[in-house]
Amino acid sequence: MAARPTTPASPKNVKVNSPVPGTPLFGCEHIQLLLSNNQDTINSSIQYYKMLLRVIFDKDPIVAQTSKTLEGLITTSLTSNFLCLQCSAILSEEERLKHGAKKGHRFYVDSRSGSLFCQFCEDFVWDPTLEDLRIRKMGTGSFSSRKRKHEDMFSDSVKESMKEEQRYISANTTAASCRADGLRGIYNAGATCYQNVVLQSFLHNPLLRNFYLGDGHQSNDCQVSHCLSCAMDDMFQDFYALENTNGYTAANILSGFWISEKKAFENLVTTKEQDAHEFFQFLAEELHERNGDGKKPETGSEHSCNCIVHQTFYGKLQNQTTCQNCGGVTNAVESFLDLSLGLENLARKKGKKEPKGEPSLTLQDCLDEEYIKSDKCEYRCRNCNSSQQARRDHSIKLLPNVLSIQLKRFEFKQGSRDRAASKIRTKVQFPLHLNMLPYTTRGQSDNGRESQELNRSCVYDLLSVVEHVGEIDTGHYVSYCRVGDQWFSFNDHRVELAKKSDVLGSQAYLLFYMIRSLA
Amino acid sequence: MASPVNTGRAGVINAPDDAGSMDQLAHAVLDDLLYNIVHDLLIKVHRDEKIARAATAAIRVEKLASDASDSSTPDARPDVKVETDAAIYDEGKVTLKGNPLVTTHDIVCPRCHLPRLLYPTDGKGARKPDPSIIYCKKRPYIDKPGYDIYGQTWVAQGPGRGKKKKDMEKKIDPNTPADSPTPASEGGNVGGGAASRPPNMLSFPSATCSKCKRCILVTRLNNHMGSCIGNSGRNASRAAAQKISNGNSNGNGDGTPPSSQKGTPLPGSRAGSPKKRDGDEMDEDDATDNDAHKKKKLKPMAASVNVNKKLVVKPKVGAGIKKEKKNDDDDGPTVEVAPKKKVTKVPSPAKKLKLGVKPLMSSPLAKSNGKAAVGGGNTGDDAASESSGTLSSPPAA
User: Fold this and answer.
1) Which CATH superfamily includes the segment(s) A29-152?
2) pLDDT digits over A407-434, tens only?
3) Of A47, A397, B221, B354, whose CB neighbour count within 10 A is largest?
4) Is A169 on the interface with B (CB under 8 A)?
């Protein structure tokens, strides 16, 4: 790191966050002294903190992990160093005390997390203003927030009327009980566990939740009878506004489902156990039709729509076909609701390589197979005007906000007369955090590979897992959903705490990954 | 830092003294990584806890300030200066005094400003809450086998409750001995067992079918809708069975797990458990019109099996010790549950009617003189007062 930069000539003074009821203005008394000094000190302190965050999150980690003792000995450490907020020194924990005693510098930044350490308190402090910057840098990679700009656009008179509005809202509404946290089971109405698991994963999907709780689809304005979206709206209200802790009876969903006249899903409407993935597709398309442009999404085409379902689940795939004869390239783009990953071939291949014991796959293996490796096909080339061998490459052109992945565990052995269905029990390891960059069209082109920013925008966190237990023809679905950092297991009406190891050890059938930053 | 010693920062993973330098390095690296993992976990908990405590200090001092200023507008920021051990309030600004982890020992909810309960009340890590404190309703989740995160458990499903007997035997819950597996004792179970059942044990609720508006027990809702909405008329179950059997043989070409043989019984098989069905209908009856008990909607077989808590069983006949139980879930003020034997004596509403008149003669016979007149007088009115008119119950005396 270079010497301390001069404060950038910013025309605007940096401000400490305005006071919010229920939170103190500063992280501790000492930060308060620093940040209620003259404007120059405030500016330089905050700007310098931003710069340190950039060093920590954007540069190679080796920069912040390398420290220099007073004697000039240079060490690179795996554990945290401390970056002085008042000069350019990077110090190890022991050296930090000496540095503080010698220079009188009291504030340091943790080299691995960017957290602020106050040497007066001898503790980490979480100052609202600085912590806000850190969270934003970690999440989106930039310090600006759209919200702030939005607020700044308004004049004071408008702000005053907005405050008035807020007062009006708080005076005329009742806040939901603190008990209502959306954690309820759903009763099994007779072999409906395949619906329950999908509904739970929708209920704990932050995008869908915000859409419905934000009156995205108002059931009292909707004219459609037995509208499934209205049923979803009611369900969200019941989960997030009522104090009830017993199970939920999804009667409206069920009747909407029975009444729905979707020919493609006729098979679903029986009283028997069904495929959760099929129900997921059904529900997504049904909600799209109720909230979107009304057009039926065609499989294999590029269908864009601004409805909540498309915004949440849909991404775009690119299939590139390269003629082996003339080298001509054709691209086809299609929308997808989920990625279906075959297990059978891979499991067999793995089984051959490691004949001992159970073959074990990783999710990345499956994704590699589908979206990195290319396959060959017959193809009618326009240039050559004849049928040619061609290479096909699949990649993801546009990543969805919520990535849903189906691991095809149910397979029909075709070919012979008797078609025997079987369940593939191969263990597939899946990560809590998934980086999709290698599978994207941009990530596969060379220039996109380095950018930290791009890398960050492709990181997904596991949101929920649907597991099928039991045999192919009979069994049970259970699901796991994450709320904050806590995992819960949902077995119909029963909700229990789950450990990460339970989640990761499950034989997943459907996986839902949520994008980490919506920037 | 790891170079002079044979371990890393945490000092947990030690290389043996005679280890080679690569060995020592590997141990040091592993040890450092362990240190980082623990460090990251701790800093996360530290952050949550310290922010919550700082907010608590702020909320408390703001409360004092607004109390001190007695302004009429609740959200206006009073221009006073208030100070607590943990924070200072000065003209709308709150600043901390000292480290909130030291000065503040509990956490209040930022929404409802009530103190948070910090330990679960049951199961792993449970502690008894202070009964004198009203806590925020957001409570730590309970981690206890057989119970859900709210400490609830459910009446095990028995035969005739949507489960086959063989499933039952396999999965009978050791925590619910009161729940007898045989349908014959169900009535007794509800009557006698209601008290022995823990308060947080729930029964399965009923829901209204959107088409026929009948009240159906939730575990049978899908089957009901299948016959009610899926197709209509009397041939529904036959048609459905036909359709399903067709579906079984050729319907699954697309990676769907085929329908099971073990799934819920076909709609037609419902007739096998008349008790259950009657329970459902009875439920509806009560929900709609409590007074019209003699409505002839009930099937003749309608034994008063109250599967559901909502059900109010009122036929109190003759003498006998009755049990009255307050039930907070109920719509009506009380649930009066007769011992099972009494209930089975009253298998149909028609009989109930007859029996309702009986106490006129039967109570004088059974009990002594003066009270009988009071009891008899009441009995004539309706089923509800009839029960209070019986001699053993305190109101009559």
Assistant:
1) Zinc/RING finger domain, C3HC4 (zinc finger) (3.30.40.10)
2) 988 776 655 455 566 788 888 999 999 9
3) B221
4) no
